[in-house]
Specification:
Length: 533
C-alpha cells in the first residue's frame, strides 16, 4: 500500500499516523485468521485450568494416586505458568512472537500426548509441567499478536473475542470434562488438545501475522532462577498450611511448611528487588510507575485468585455436598457461561468508547456481589442460590477481563507487548496459583474447626466419607448414604466451602479497589509508552 496517497483524515482509528502500519498491507485482510488462531490456543490453556478438576477422582483411581499427588495435577500446571510466563514472554520478544507461538502450540500438543498416555502419576505430573512450559511460550505471544493485528480503536472488539471465547470454554470445561470422563475415559481430556493445536498452527501459517523482535538481546537468567525457586516454594507452603497429617492433626506448624513459606517469600522479595535494579530485568516492574498499568495487572491477578479457586472448589462441592455426578457437577457451573456469551462483546465496545475504568469498576463490583451470594448459597446447601451468584459473577468477569487485558497491552510499543503480556499473565497465574492454595487451605482448616465445634463426626470420619462420595462407586455411595455421620459431614463440608468462597470474594473486592483507585478514566491510551519507565 502506498501510504503517501492516504490522507490522515482516513485513519481515525489510529490517532498517531506512524502506527497506521499495524493494520495496513495484507495483514489487514488476514487479521481475523490471526484472531481465530490465537483464540483457539488460549482456549486450550483456559480449559486445562478447569477440565482436569472434574476428572481428578477418576484419574487418581486409575493411576493409584494419593490425595496429595492428585492435587499436584492441578497445582503443578498453575505454578509452572506463574513461574515461567515472564521468561516465555521475554524469549518471544527475542526470537519473534510467531516462532514462540508455534513452538508453544506444538509443545502443548506433545505434552498433552504425554499426559494422555500416562501410566502413572509421575508421568502425568511431568506432562502437566511440560504443558505449563509450552503455554508460557504460547500465551504471551498470542496476546501480543492479536493487539498487533488490529488498530487501537478495534482492539476492544478483538480482545473481547480473544478473551471471551476462552472464558466460555473455561466455563464449559468442567461439564465437558465430566462428559468425557464418563463416556470416553479421562485420557481424552488431553487427547482433544491435539487437533486444536494442529488447527492453530495451520491458521497461523495462513495468516502470516505481523511480527517484531526486540533489539534488547539480554535475559536476566538469575532473576528467572529466583522466580522459579521462590514462587513454587511459597505456593506449596500456602497449600500445606491446611494439610492433614496421618494422625489427623494440621501440618501448618511443620518446620518444612513454614520454611518453604518463609523462604519462598524471601526469595520472591529478592526477585522483586533485582527486577527493580537490573538494567535488563526479566519482568520490567518499573513499568508499574504507570499506576494504570499496575491497576490492570492487580485486577487481573485478583480476579484470577477468585475465579480459579471457585471453579476447582465448585466442582468438588457439587459432587460431595450436592451429590452430583461429574457431568452434573460440570453442568452446575454453566450459569457462568450465559453472561460471558451475552456481555463480553458489549464490554469490548464499552472499552472502545470509554476506556477501562468504567467497565472494570462495574465488573469487579458485580463479581464481588456474585461471590458473596455463592458463599451464602454454599452455606445453605442451595444450588439455586449459588446459580444466581454464578450468573452475577459471570457478568462481572465479562465486563472486567477483556477491557483490562486490552488496556494493559495498549500501553506499550508493539515490540514490547510480549514483555508486558508476559508480565500481566504472570500476575494472572500467580493470582490463580495462590487462589487455589489459599481456598484449599481455608476449606481444610474450616473442616477441622467445624468438626471440633460441632462435636459431630471427627475429621478422620469426614475425610473417609468424602472419599466415598468422590469414588463414583455405587456401593461406596450406598455405604455413605447409610451412615448416620453423612448429614453432619454434608453440613461441615458445606460450611467449610462457604468460608472458602468468602475468602475468594476478597480477591474480587481487591480488584474493585484497584479499578476504582488506580485505573484512569477516559478512552484507550492516546500516547503509547516506550516501556522505558
Amino acid at each position: 500500500m502506498d501510504r503517501s496517497n492516504t490522507p490522515p483524515r482516513h485513519t481515525p482509528q489510529t490517532p498517531h499516523g506512524h502506527h497506521g502500519h499495524l493494520v495496513a498491507d495484507g495483514a489487514q485482510q488476514r487479521r481475523w485468521l490471526v484472531l481465530l488462531a490465537m483464540t483457539g490456543s488460549l482456549a486450550m490453556i483456559f480449559v486445562d485450568m478447569t477440565v482436569v478438576g472434574v476428572a481428578l477422582p477418576r484419574i487418581g483411581s486409575s493411576l493409584s494416586m494419593s490425595d496429595v499427588d492428585q492435587a499436584w495435577i492441578v497445582t503443578s500446571y498453575l505454578i509452572t505458568l506463574a513461574s515461567l510466563m515472564a521468561l516465555g514472554g521475554r524469549i518471544g520478544d527475542l526470537i519473534g512472537k510467531v516462532p514462540a507461538f508455534v513452538a508453544g502450540v506444538v509443545g502443548f500438543a506433545l505434552a498433552s500426548i504425554v499426559c494422555a498416555s500416562a501410566h502413572d502419576g509421575t508421568q502425568l505430573i511431568i506432562g502437566r509441567v511440560l504443558q505449563g512450559l509450552a503455554a508460557c511460550f504460547m500465551q504471551p505471544a498470542s496476546g501480543a499478536l492479536v493487539i498487533g493485528a488490529f488498530a487501537p480503536g478495534e482492539r476492544g472488539k478483538a480482545m473481547a473475542v480473544y478473551v471471551g471465547i476462552p472464558l466460555i470454554f473455561m466455563a464449559i470445561g468442567p461439564a465437558l470434562g465430566g462428559f468425557i470422563v464418563e463416556n470416553m475415559g479421562w485420557p481424552w481430556v488431553f487427547w482433544l488438545n491435539v487437533p486444536v493445536a494442529a488447527a492453530a498452527v495451520l491458521l497461523t501459517v495462513l495468516a502470516r501475522p505481523r511480527d517484531a523482535r526486540s533489539t534488547d538481546r539480554s535475559i536476566d537468567w538469575i532473576g528467572g532462577v529466583l522466580l522459579i525457586l521462590g514462587l513454587p516454594s511459597f505456593v506449596y507452603g500456602l497449600q500445606q498450611l491446611g494439610a492433614v497429617r496421618p494422625d489427623g492433626t494440621i501440618a501448618w506448624t511443620d518446620r518444612l511448611t513454614l520454611s518453604l513459606l518463609g523462604g519462598g517469600a524471601a526469595v520472591l522479595v529478592m526477585f522483586v528487588l533485582r527486577q527493580l535494579r537490573h538494567p535488563h530485568p526479566l519482568l520490567r516492574l518499573r513499568l508499574f510507575a504507570d499506576r494504570a498499568l499496575l491497576a490492570d495487572a492487580l485486577v487481573v491477578a485478583s480476579m484470577q485468585f477468585a475465579m480459579t479457586g471457585l471453579v476447582i472448589a465448585g466442582s468438588v462441592y457439587a459432587q460431595e455436598v450436592l451429590g452430583f455426578t461429574p457431568f452434573q457437577a460440570g453442568l452446575s457451573l454453566l450459569p457462568l457461561l450465559a453472561p460471558v456469551i451475552l456481555i463480553v462483546h458489549v464490554a469490548g465496545r464499552w472499552y472502545d468508547r470509554a476506556g477501562v475504568q468504567a467497565p472494570a469498576s462495574w465488573g469487579t463490583a458485580a463479581a464481588t456481589v456474585g461471590m458473596v451470594i455463592q458463599a451464602t448459597g454454599a452455606w445453605m446447601q442451595s444450588y439455586p442460590v449459588m446459580a444466581v451468584g454464578m450468573f452475577i459473577l459471570g457478568i462481572g468477569i465479562a465486563f472486567t477481563m477483556s477491557p483490562t487485558n486490552t488496556d494493559a497491552l495498549g500501553r506499550v510499543s508493539h515490540s514490547e507487548r510480549g514483555q508486558v503480556s508476559g508480565l500481566v499473565q504472570t500476575f494472572r497465574q500467580v493470582g490463580g496459583s495462590v487462589g487455589v492454595a489459599v481456598v484449599a487451605a481455608t476449606v481444610s482448616l474450616a473442616i477441622g474447626w467445624f468438626s471440633a465445634m460441632s462435636g459431630a463426626a471427627p475429621r478422620e470420619r469426614v475425610a473417609e466419607l468424602r472419599m466415598m462420595m468422590r469414588s463414583g462407586d455405587a456401593d461406596a455411595h450406598g455405604q455413605a448414604a447409610a451412615s448416620p455421620d453423612l448429614q453432619s459431614m454434608h453440613e461441615t463440608v458445606a460450611h467449610s466451602y462457604a468460608v472458602g468462597y468468602a475468602v475468594a470474594s476478597l480477591g474480587t473486592l481487591a480488584a474493585f479497589v484497584a479499578a476504582r483507585g488506580w485505573m484512569k478514566p477516559g478512552k484507550w491510551p492516546t500516547v503509547i509508552r516506550t516501556g522505558n519507565a
